Amino acid sequence: MRSTDHDLLLSLNKDYIDSVQHSDVARFGEILAMDFRCSNPDGTLLDRQEFLEQSSKPVTISGLQARDVLIRQFGDCAIIHATTFYLDAEGSEKKGRYTDVWLKEKGVWLAVSAHVTRG
């Protein structure tokens, strides 16, 4: 059975969240477009290299989960909205939101943009 774009995007979204939690720069290198940009909760805008450098550092959160994942596909473009739940360094429950934009080029979905908020 062939995977649909929706199934692929669900899997890529899970990979993205897992890569954040585990500082998996290698996987990020596979799924981020060369012109990827990320808006951080502190208002900074990172390019791909800066994001990879940031992602290489161990995170202080644990139990990161994405819930209420909504995938909106527009041809070869998809927008993923979700709520995140996690524990901060002190063990307090926190939540945030993210919006990721994915673009399908030559049959491959790559993340081109991310916007992250934290509560």
UniProtKB/TrEMBL annotation:
A Pfam family assignment: DUF4440
Signal peptide range in chain numbering: none
Domain named DUF4440: residues: 10-110
Transmembrane segments annotated in the record for this chain: none
Source superkingdom: Bacteria
InterPro entries, alphabetized: DUF4440, NTF2-like_dom_sf
Protein name: DUF4440 domain-containing protein
Organism of provenance: SAR86 cluster bacterium
Source species taxonomy: Bacteria, Pseudomonadati, Pseudomonadota, Gammaproteobacteria, SAR86 cluster
